[in-house]
Model the fold of this input.
Amino acid sequence: MREFTDEEFKRKMKITFDYNYAMKDYLGTDGAVTKDEINSYKDKCRDIIIEIKKQRQDGALPYMDLPYAAEEALEVKQLAQKVRYMCDDFVVLGIGGSSLGAIALMQALKNPFHNMQTADEREAPRMIVADNIDPDWFKAIFDVVDDDRTIFNVISKSGSTAETMSQFLIALAHIKDKIGANYNNNMIVTTDAKSGALRTIVNKEEFASLVVPDGVGGRFSVLSAVGLFPAAVIGIDIDELLAGARFMDEQCQNEDVTQNPAAISALIYYLYYKKGRNINVMMPYSSALRDIADWYRQLWAESLGKKHDLKGNIVHTGQTPVKALGVTDQHSQLQLYVEGPDDKIITLIRVLEFEGEVVIPDDTNNIQGLDYLGGKTLSELIGAELTATEITLMKNQKPNCMITVPKVNAFTLGQLMYMLEVQTSVMGMLMNIDTYDQPGVEQGKLYTYGMLGRTGFEEKNEEIKSQRQKDNRFVV
Done:
């Protein structure tokens, strides 16, 4: 329950983007971004923000309207409430955009060991996200769940994704065999409203279903039923999540790039990309936000890694996203970031207030070299580690930015995820590419269909066979 008014809550829980240590004023190197560079892009960024508003008004960016879809959110909550009392295990069948958002939300907003608690200890079902088709791993899911108390949620807009549909067919056969006549109560489908194989199956089997909105790609779908339904099932407050996204949406309307967190962050990354920094590192100093970096990695890579620009020119553009975790990766990656190639822009994420606190005992018996820790908290320690990393990067002229999250909760997560989605849209327009297609992924799907004998893709299978006959020259 909130202890203060909505406006006070928004002010206290507003996330911020700090780019001081990405600027030449602090880095002091000729390779750093200057205020004049940012000012030179103000008009272009204003035009981009205006164009995004126009595209949104024309219905071309439906992901931006998801925070306002009240009826859909109500439907999600009602079904989730029903499901929570029907199962002990909730298994999501999906891959990529159909899974990464749900994983990130669970990691951020539930007890980190939620799935390890017993059914009596948990206040919501355990959630298992089946985001791969490794046979040993997938088979093991059926070894640990109670068939009668397990509900599967298959997520695929097209209903043709080979990985997800193979999982679905296996799970469907399993529940038919183990449960019998009422098996359709143990499968919920999230797919296109009207078309596709899954919609046909829903109509035939009378499964409960939710809709993937038209025009919303998987990597932009976390604030639709794709991400909201799993979140609601495990007890996450999706109203607060959407409220946070709406709050960020207000800020993303600002046509002054320096007052728009999504736009200024995109511009900073773009200017450094032009300077040869083609790696974008996200490093949250919070285990709760660890999988936000994983979700963001798909959003950034699949949206911006493109062969052609909007005019059809071959550009091979894209900034490679890398995830790291503070403080863990100070001991595995930071050496490279500080002293390695000048090819990275690093974004650190700071959490101001952690949910719990742990005090380091001050009874160190005057052990030399440890007495400074006594009486400190782990929050103080992780905060000092973060600041030390930030300053070290700056002193070594490595540009870094800081996203500050007052507290990890549904409201701040809604802000963060929505900001990163709009940031990606702005970055795509700065790069003059189609942010919303993924032709490189589609090509791999076609070859897979061919090799598995899908009708209409025989030519792809022959192409693979022909290639394999040549692939014996460089094998040790």
In short: The CA atoms of residues 276 and 343 lie 6 Å apart. The first strand starts at residue 16 and ends at 18. The chain has two domains: 6-57+241-431, 63-238.
